[in-house]
Amino acid sequence: xxxxxxxxxxxxxxxxxxxxxxxxxxxxxxxxxxxxxxxxxxxxxxxxxxxxxxxxxxxxxxxxxxxxxxxxxxxxxxxxxxxxxxxxxxxxxxxxxxxxxxxxxxxxxxxxxxxxxxxxxxxxxxxxxxxxxxx
Length: 135
Ligand SMILES: [Zn+2]
Known about the structure:
Elements: H1 3-12, E1 32-35, E2 50-53, H2 55-61, E3 66-68, E4 75-77, H3 86-89, E5 90-93, E6 96-99, H4 102-110, H5 116-127
Antiparallel strand pairs: 1-2, 3-4, 5-6
Protein backbone atom coordinates (compact mmCIF):
# COMPACT_ATOMS: atom_id res chain seq x y z
CA UNK A 1 0.00 0.00 0.00
CA UNK A 2 1.44 3.34 -0.98
CA UNK A 3 2.52 5.53 1.91
CA UNK A 4 -0.19 8.16 1.39
CA UNK A 5 -2.89 5.51 1.50
CA UNK A 6 -1.53 3.98 4.69
CA UNK A 7 -1.61 7.45 6.24
CA UNK A 8 -5.21 7.93 5.06
CA UNK A 9 -6.29 4.63 6.68
CA UNK A 10 -4.68 5.64 9.99
CA UNK A 11 -6.13 9.15 9.98
CA UNK A 12 -9.59 7.90 9.04
CA UNK A 13 -9.56 5.65 12.14
CA UNK A 14 -8.19 8.48 14.33
CA UNK A 15 -5.68 5.99 15.75
CA UNK A 16 -8.39 3.73 17.20
CA UNK A 17 -9.18 0.10 16.58
CA UNK A 18 -12.30 0.25 14.42
CA UNK A 19 -13.75 -2.78 16.22
CA UNK A 20 -13.06 -2.28 19.97
CA UNK A 21 -12.10 1.46 19.85
CA UNK A 22 -8.83 0.95 21.76
CA UNK A 23 -6.47 3.80 21.00
CA UNK A 24 -3.03 2.97 19.66
CA UNK A 25 -1.80 5.34 22.35
CA UNK A 26 -2.79 2.82 25.07
CA UNK A 27 -1.82 -0.37 23.31
CA UNK A 28 1.54 -2.05 23.81
CA UNK A 29 1.37 -3.80 20.44
CA UNK A 30 1.01 -1.79 17.25
CA UNK A 31 -2.41 -1.57 15.64
CA UNK A 32 -2.55 -3.14 12.19
CA UNK A 33 -4.24 -2.55 8.87
CA UNK A 34 -6.97 -5.16 8.61
CA UNK A 35 -8.35 -6.38 5.31
CA UNK A 36 -12.09 -6.45 6.04
CA UNK A 37 -12.51 -9.12 3.38
CA UNK A 38 -9.31 -11.11 3.75
CA UNK A 39 -6.86 -11.45 0.89
CA UNK A 40 -7.39 -15.22 0.95
CA UNK A 41 -11.06 -14.53 0.12
CA UNK A 42 -9.99 -12.31 -2.78
CA UNK A 43 -10.40 -9.13 -0.73
CA UNK A 44 -8.82 -6.21 -2.58
CA UNK A 45 -5.97 -4.10 -1.20
CA UNK A 46 -8.04 -0.91 -1.34
CA UNK A 47 -9.12 1.88 0.99
CA UNK A 48 -12.69 0.52 0.95
CA UNK A 49 -11.53 -2.89 2.16
CA UNK A 50 -9.24 -1.81 4.97
CA UNK A 51 -9.58 -0.61 8.52
CA UNK A 52 -7.42 -0.25 11.60
CA UNK A 53 -7.56 -3.09 14.11
CA UNK A 54 -5.69 -3.57 17.36
CA UNK A 55 -3.44 -6.62 17.49
CA UNK A 56 -5.99 -8.51 19.62
CA UNK A 57 -8.95 -7.89 17.28
CA UNK A 58 -6.92 -8.51 14.14
CA UNK A 59 -5.48 -11.80 15.42
CA UNK A 60 -8.91 -13.01 16.54
CA UNK A 61 -10.57 -11.96 13.30
CA UNK A 62 -7.96 -13.60 11.11
CA UNK A 63 -9.56 -14.27 7.75
CA UNK A 64 -13.07 -14.62 9.20
CA UNK A 65 -15.77 -12.84 7.21
CA UNK A 66 -18.79 -14.04 9.19
CA UNK A 67 -19.84 -15.42 12.52
CA UNK A 68 -22.80 -16.90 14.36
CA UNK A 69 -24.94 -14.56 16.44
CA UNK A 70 -24.75 -16.04 19.98
CA UNK A 71 -28.43 -15.15 20.55
CA UNK A 72 -30.03 -16.47 17.37
CA UNK A 73 -27.33 -18.80 16.01
CA UNK A 74 -27.82 -17.02 12.69
CA UNK A 75 -24.77 -16.83 10.40
CA UNK A 76 -24.12 -13.15 9.66
CA UNK A 77 -21.29 -11.07 8.20
CA UNK A 78 -18.85 -9.46 10.62
CA UNK A 79 -18.98 -5.70 11.21
CA UNK A 80 -17.65 -3.79 8.22
CA UNK A 81 -16.09 -0.50 9.32
CA UNK A 82 -16.48 0.96 5.82
CA UNK A 83 -20.16 0.17 5.21
CA UNK A 84 -21.61 -0.26 8.72
CA UNK A 85 -22.01 2.37 11.44
CA UNK A 86 -20.38 1.41 14.76
CA UNK A 87 -23.12 2.96 16.96
CA UNK A 88 -25.83 1.02 15.13
CA UNK A 89 -24.24 -2.31 16.07
CA UNK A 90 -22.49 -1.80 19.42
CA UNK A 91 -22.79 -0.08 22.78
CA UNK A 92 -20.64 0.06 25.91
CA UNK A 93 -21.82 -0.90 29.35
CA UNK A 94 -18.77 0.12 31.34
CA UNK A 95 -15.84 -1.83 29.97
CA UNK A 96 -18.00 -4.50 28.35
CA UNK A 97 -19.10 -4.20 24.74
CA UNK A 98 -22.59 -5.35 23.77
CA UNK A 99 -24.07 -5.96 20.35
CA UNK A 100 -27.34 -4.31 19.34
CA UNK A 101 -27.64 -6.47 16.24
CA UNK A 102 -26.71 -9.97 15.07
CA UNK A 103 -23.70 -8.41 13.27
CA UNK A 104 -22.59 -6.66 16.47
CA UNK A 105 -23.00 -9.75 18.65
CA UNK A 106 -21.27 -12.07 16.15
CA UNK A 107 -18.37 -9.64 15.77
CA UNK A 108 -17.87 -9.34 19.53
CA UNK A 109 -17.94 -13.13 19.77
CA UNK A 110 -15.54 -13.91 16.89
CA UNK A 111 -13.09 -11.15 17.85
CA UNK A 112 -13.27 -11.99 21.59
CA UNK A 113 -13.68 -8.28 22.30
CA UNK A 114 -14.79 -9.01 25.87
CA UNK A 115 -11.81 -11.21 26.63
CA UNK A 116 -11.11 -10.68 30.38
CA UNK A 117 -7.71 -9.11 29.69
CA UNK A 118 -9.31 -6.59 27.31
CA UNK A 119 -12.07 -5.76 29.81
CA UNK A 120 -9.44 -5.28 32.55
CA UNK A 121 -7.47 -2.91 30.36
CA UNK A 122 -10.59 -0.90 29.47
CA UNK A 123 -11.53 -0.69 33.17
CA UNK A 124 -8.13 0.88 33.92
CA UNK A 125 -8.58 3.32 31.05
CA UNK A 126 -12.12 4.22 32.16
CA UNK A 127 -10.88 4.94 35.69
CA UNK A 128 -8.27 7.25 34.17
CA UNK A 129 -11.01 8.86 32.04
CA UNK A 130 -9.22 7.73 28.86
CA UNK A 131 -11.91 5.44 27.44
CA UNK A 132 -14.06 5.25 25.40
CA UNK A 133 -12.47 7.73 22.99
CA UNK A 134 -14.25 10.97 22.22
CA UNK A 135 -15.27 11.41 18.62
ZN1 LIG B 1 -9.60 -3.94 18.85
